[in-house]
Amino acid sequence: MSWHVLGAGALGSLWATRLHRAGIPVRIILRSAQRLADYQRAGRLTLSEAGRTSLHAIPAELPDATTPIQRLLVACKAYDAEAAITQLAPRLAPDCEMLLLQNGLGSQQSIADRWPQARCIFVSSTEGAYRDGSMHVVFAGHGQNWLGAPDGGEAPVWLDELDRAGIPHSWSSDILARLWRKLALNCAINPLTVLHDCRNGELLHYREQLSELCEELSELLGACGQAAAAEELERDVLRVIEATAANYSSMYQDVRLGRRTEITYLLGHACRSADSLGLAVPRLHALHRRLREHLRQHGLPTD
Length: 303
Ligand code: NAD
Ligand code: KPL
Known about the structure:
Blueprint: E1 3-6, H1 10-21, E2 26-29, H2 33-42, E3 45-49, E4 52-56, E5 60-61, E6 69-74, H3 78-88, E7 92-100, H4 107-114, E8 119-125, E9 128-131, E10 136-141, E11 145-148, H5 159-165, E12 170-171, H6 175-195, H7 207-223, H8 227-230, H9 233-243, H10 250-256, H11 267-277, H12 282-297
Parallel strand pairs: 1-2, 1-6, 2-5, 3-10, 6-7, 7-8, 11-12
Antiparallel strand pairs: 3-4, 8-11, 9-10
Helix pairs in contact: 1-5, 3-4, 6-7, 6-9, 6-10, 6-12, 11-12
Bound molecules: nicotinamide-adenine-dinucleotide (NAD) and ketopantoate.
C-alpha cells in the first residue's frame, strides 16, 4: 500500500524522503500543474541531514489523479489543510486513514467531522525542518512525533514502517492532551517573540508577562477538560525557552519572511475556546489583538 503525502513543503518532504529511502512506496501530491512541471524538471527531492545530502526521485501527481488513496499524510499548513483534502476527496478510499500533521488545534477536528468515514490520526511533531529552495528540505532538529486518534483506539500496524524509515514516533492514548499542551506552549512563547522582536531566550526578561499568560492558559486547559496538560505549564514554558534560547520561534520566522502565520489555530483557537466556555481570559485576548494589529501593520493576514 502506498503512502500519499499531500503538500511537499518542509515536513511533507522530510516524511516522504525518509519513507522513500526505506523502500516504502510513497507518492507526493503537488498543488498545481506548474509545481508538478518544476518537480519533474528537477526530477527529485533533496534531503540534507547532518551534513549529508541525498536525492529522492519520488513519484509525484496532482490532486485530481485517479488512483485511490488509502493512507494520506496531510502536511499542509493548518489554514490550507481542509481545502487541500477537498480537492482529492473523491479519491479517498472508504476506510482510508489520514495523518494530520498540523500545528495548533481546530483544523484537525474540522477535517475529522467533514470526513467521518476516514480514520483521522492527529500528529504532534517536535521535529524541525525547513525548505532551502522549492525541492530541497533541510532536517534541522531532531524531535518526536506523537500520533494518536482523538477517540483513543489501537495503534495502527503500519507504525513499523515508520520504524523502518527512521521516523521517530510514539503512539499516544491522549493525543488531544499533547496538542493542547503544545498549543499552550506556543501561545505563551511565539506571539511574545514576534511582539518583542526577539529570540526565545530573550523572553526571560518578560517573566511577569509569561507568568500571567501561563495562568490564563492553565485555567483554559482545565476548563477544556485538559487538567493534566495544564500541570506545571509555566515551568515547562521556562524549560522550553531555555532549551531553545538561541532560536527564533516558528511564528517569528513566518512574520520575518512575510509568510502567513497559523495564529487562528493557536492564540485564535485559545480565545475562541475560552469564549465558548464563558471563561474570561483578558490577557490572551489582549495578546491576540496586539498580534493581529502587528500582522496588519506588516501587511500579513490576521487569520
Ligand atoms: P510548508 O509551508 O513548508 O509546507 C506546506 C506545503 O503544503 C507547501 O509546499 C504548500 O505548497 C503545500 N500545499 C498547500 N496547499 C496545497 C494543496 N491544495 N495541494 C497540495 N499541496 C498544498 O509547511 P511546513 O513547515 O511543512 O508545516 C506543515 C505543518 O506542520 C504546519 O501546520 C506546521 O505548523 C507543522 N509543523 C512544522 C514543523 C517544521 O519544522 N516545518 C514542525 C512541527 C510542525
Ligand atoms: O514550537 C515552537 C515554535 O517555535 O513553534 C517552540 C520552540 C516550542 C516555541 O514555542
